[in-house]
Design brief:
CATH topology of the largest domain: Transferase(Phosphotransferase), domain 1
Shape: elongated
Helix content: 55-70%
Strand content: under 5%
Number of domains: 2
CATH architecture of the largest domain: Orthogonal Bundle
CATH superfamily of the largest domain: Transferase(Phosphotransferase) domain 1
Order of helices and strands: HHHHHHHHHH
Largest sheet: none
Number of strands: 0
Radius of gyration: 23 Å
Length: about 180
């Protein structure tokens, strides 16, 4: 934030629409910063509010850097999931996760205009989970099962690591005692 505030005479843009890399004072700013700002503008247009609010510019910029974006379709429920995905990609914190250029963004905007799903956005979202769903199973159930599976896997790993740590401590104590 100091980088964005400390250089007088440089136009960084309105804090409500500034890209994270601009706030950090990055030297390799490219068109993806503009895509972020445009995404913030779209967000404001479709939700009626700016993406991040705070009492001052510094607070707003901190939120651009750290706070998770509320998906626009969670605020405006009449918004299509496709448009929400496009805006979320435009406003990704890491520029590598955004559209690489305006052409890529335009492909998705034109698809939405035709009533189709955004092609580039779909490439970025992991649809493998949806493809693995069994008939009658919903995403929430599948996610719950996945989380439970991962917890069980990590619980076993934690028990094994705990046992190894305990044995290691016991060996160290025995070595010290035998001196």
């Amino acid at each position: 934030i100091e980088a964005a505030e400390s250089e007088k005479g440089k136009a960084y843009g309105t804090p409500y629409y500034i890209a994270p890399e601009q706030i950090r004072g990055a030297m390799d700013i490219d068109g993806r910063a503009d895509i972020y700002g445009l995404g913030a503008t779209f967000y404001h247009m479709v939700t009626g509010r700016v993406p991040f609010m705070a009492d001052d510019s510094a607070g707003i910029m901190k939120k651009h850097l750290r706070e998770r974006l509320i998906p626009p379709d969670h605020i405006n429920t009449s918004l299509s999931a496709g448009l929400s995905e496009v805006i979320e990609i435009m406003m990704a914190k890491d520029k590598k996760d955004r559209y690489k250029d305006a052409k890529e963004l335009l492909i998705d905007l034109e698809a939405l205009q035709r009533g189709e799903q955004p092609i580039q956005a779909r490439k970025r979202f992991d649809v493998s989970m949806l493809e693995q769903l069994e008939e009658g199973e919903n995403l929430e159930t599948a996610n719950t099962e996945y989380v439970e599976e991962m917890l069980n896997k990590y619980k076993t790993l934690a028990i094994i690591l705990g046992a190894v740590s305990g044995i290691s401590v016991l060996i160290i104590i025995l070595m010290i005692a035998m001196r």
